[in-house]
Write a structure and sequence with these properties.
The structure holds two protein chains of two kinds. Chain A is mainly α. Chain A has ten helices and no strands. The chains are: A mainly alpha, B mainly alpha.
């Protein structure tokens, strides 16, 4: 990654952590340059904000989609607007930044759910099923033995808290204490929730 | 399949980070599930959506940079602010309910309400008479004025009414006295008029003309000092020198000529007037 701070121009940032089966979420995605990027973002540098968005937006959008948020794209935009507003008060490294973004995303999701009246556990309609079937990756499905439709049905078997914990762990890459902070539960409760969620999924997969 | 309950946190961290499970852990099914979740939902954002999001994001960054400055130099970052959201509303409601649940609190609220009502009534003067007077007297000592009780005010009103009645009576008496004085004056004029008639009959018009002329000459010669006459008249009407009351002026047997003869100008009564001074005005100056 190269960052040109002198003229404030957009840096050519080689983004790591691309989508792959070997994606490691706890591995820093920006790395040592995160401090520089964050400092530039605080001064309003466009290139820094672009980099932050490219690094974290896919995971945020994926989390919101997995939670079946009605408008996950709009919520993702709102999450980053909130990041812009609150960046002046943020302190910490890249892992803290990731955790902070997912705390915002989770709270935006809860607000949206409350605003709409209920948790969006909706039966999958025919149109959605066709869309999912057309988007399906045969190779992935062959490897996992699961289609996206199966995945949706599996996740729908979990309670809200179990689904929150599991998706924040898998898609957000948060640790148990970070998930506990995000959902307002104790770490022990989070640990129990994820164990019960996995047990339920294994039972459904058999 | 590994029995549930024996997955360590370390193994879970490994699985959730997308790594393959260790050998002989029996967690392949979980690993496949995690991989499926990640490959399904962790996709690149569509270019159009990304461009839209970035445009909005940059616009907001520029706005905040020029406005309320959400983005600021790292050297001035103070860290997260303390949460100021307070207790949840449910808890606050509970606290309020418990506050008013005790008997002492209810009594206190009732006492405060009574005190406030009494204060309001006292200020507007609507307490019972004795209470209002007592309270007014008490607070007057500390410099606060509130109306007296109805008893005192009634007494004051009665005194004022009596004073008004007395003033009206005095005014009526004065009017009567003035009327009597006017009547007396008219009687005197009538008497004087009779004298003129008599004079007309005895002295004739030529003598009256002579009287007017003599008065005019007297005035020119200074024979009659009007100022002296005025002062003498004022002296005569001072209280100690005042004559009989107005009523007395109209007493039987006294005429206007009698009263005129008591004035300092008595010496100037023309001789044509019956009972006047023999020398009269025309008789020369004093």
């Amino acid at each position: 990654m190269s960052v040109n701070d002198a003229d404030g121009s957009r840096a050519a940032l080689a983004l790591g952590g691309s989508r792959s089966s070997g994606l490691t979420f706890r591995q820093p995605m920006i790395g040592e340059q995160f401090v520089t990027v964050l400092a530039a973002a605080r001064t309003g540098a466009e290139w820094a904000w672009t980099n932050l968005y490219k690094q974290f937006a896919p995971a945020v959008l994926g989390y919101l989609r997995a939670q079946q948020a009605p408008e996950p794209e709009d919520l993702t935009a709102e999450v980053f607007f909130q990041v812009v507003k609150g960046l002046g008060q943020f302190e910490g490294g890249e892992a803290d930044f990731r955790s902070w973004i997912f705390v915002i995303a989770h709270r935006k999701l809860i607000d949206d759910i409350r605003h709409r009246g209920r948790r969006p556990v909706r039966p999958t309609d025919t149109e959605t099923l066709e869309s999912l079937a057309s988007r399906g990756n045969v190779e992935d499905e062959a490897l996992s033995g699961l289609s996206e439709i199966d995945l949706r049905r599996l996740l729908a078997q979990l309670t809200d808290d179990q689904r929150d914990v599991l998706l924040l762990r898998i898609l957000g890459g948060l640790t148990v204490p970070e998930v506990a902070a995000a959902i307002g539960r104790r770490p022990g409760a989070v640990h129990a929730l994820q164990q019960r969620a996995l047990a339920r999924l294994r039972k459904e997969m058999v | 399949m590994k029995p549930f309950g024996k997955i360590s946190e370390h193994e879970l961290d490994r699985l959730f980070s997308g790594k393959a499970p260790a050998e002989n852990t029996g967690l392949n099914d979980i690993a496949r599930l995690v991989q499926k979740v990640q490959t399904t939902y962790l996709t690149n954002i569509e270019p159009d959506l990304e461009a839209t999001h970035l445009a909005g994001l940059i616009e907001m960054v520029n706005l905040t940079d020029k406005g309320d400055l959400a983005a600021r130099p790292a050297s001035k970052v103070t860290g997260p602010h303390a949460q100021a959201s307070g207790l949840p509303k449910r808890r606050r409601k509970f606290m309020l309910e418990s506050l008013f649940a005790t008997l002492a609190a209810k009594l206190a609220v009732g006492g405060i309400a009574i005190a406030m009502a009494a204060s309001g009534a006292a200020v507007t003067g609507h307490l019972p008479d004795q209470a209002q007077t007592g309270l007014s007297t008490a607070v007057e000592k500390i410099g606060i004025h509130i109306p007296l009780g109805d008893t005192a005010e009634e007494a004051l009103e009665r005194a004022e009414a009596a004073a008004e009645a007395a003033a009206e009576a005095a005014e009526e008496a004065l009017e009567r006295a003035e009327a009597a004085a006017e009547a007396a004056a008219r009687a005197a004029e009538e008497l004087t008029g009779e004298g003129d008639v008599d004079g007309d009959e005895t002295n004739g018009p030529n003598e009256n003309a002579a009287f007017g002329q003599s008065v005019a000459e007297d005035a020119r010669d200074g024979g009659v000092d009007g100022q002296d006459i005025s002062e003498a008249a004022r002296a005569a009407h001072r209280p100690e020198n005042a004559g009989p009351p107005a009523d007395a002026a109209g007493s039987p047997g006294q005429t206007g000529l009698d009263r005129a003869s008591q004035t300092p100008a008595a010496g100037h009564i023309p001789s044509s007037v019956p009972g006047g001074r023999p020398g009269g005005v025309g008789g020369g100056t004093p």
